[in-house]
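During the no-cost extension, the postdoctoral fellow (Dr. R.K.) reprocessed legacy sequence entries with the updated structure-token encoder. One reprocessed record is reproduced below for audit purposes.
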Amino acid sequence: MGTKIKLNENLHPTNKHKSGYNFQELCEGYPPLKEFVFVNKYQTETIDFANSKAVKAINTALLFKYYNIMFWDFPDKNLCPPIPGRVDYIHYLSDLLTESGITENITVMDIGTGASCIYPLLGNAEYGWEFVGTDINEKSLNCAQQILKKNHIDSLIKLKYQPDSTQIFKGVLTENDRFSATMCNPPFYKSQEETMQANARKLKGLGNASDFKSRNFSGKQQELWYKGGEKAFVHTYLYESSFFKTQCFWYSTLVSKKENLKSMYASLKKLNATEIKIIQMLQGNKITRIVAWTFLTKEEQKKWISS
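Re-encoded structure tokens follow.
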């Protein structure tokens, strides 16, 4: 063992996973991964990325090895996030904050933190950021709380229940709150049917087209689909952010569908956003984007940084 599987040179320059996976090191740090590792026809060690248990094992191993997370467990039906892609968002958000002069006392709100609590874990491990994670599912928050408690970081990462699934910020963000940034990985699909169709295409690409009903990363309804899909979710997000213009320096969200950018830009202009940034991320064959915006004037930004 020890052969690396090449991942993606297009990941962020500081991403620890640009050069791929060293399975020997990962298995030493997390022995349960061993049962899923095999040598493929190209004589390279790998796992079956269509196997949800294998995917969960390798991502757990990455957290153990590189991020000092010693406990990370949640129900198999919940979404299992791919660490290399998730930490890329963290790195690009860090770049944005640094460019804006925000380099210390950083607090981030993660919308839809989920049972895995992945963005707060990575943001705290990489940059020491403090977080508030929100979610509409109390069971997911209970799982996330256990992860935080067992890793002794529950004083740095707080969780908030959003009781109204139609709202993003109302009910969890107050006039007295102050966040350096918000982040969000919104539901991509409009319905369960659309989700399953996308999964069938993904499995076909992984050579497992017959297993239509499984997901190689699982996921509950609120994690994967939203009435109206990504476009409806992000427009609710934009609209609600305009009610809290001075509570946060940078609002941000991932956007998977390029066709949603034009309407988002138009809406943000109407809502009087003072700056809008689109940051492209290339991961394998997939292009996704971070859209970030602020309502603060230049004077308000200077005051924020100096305070």
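The first strand starts at residue 4 and ends at 5. The chain is about 35% helix and 20% strand. The remaining legacy entries will be reprocessed before the final report is submitted.
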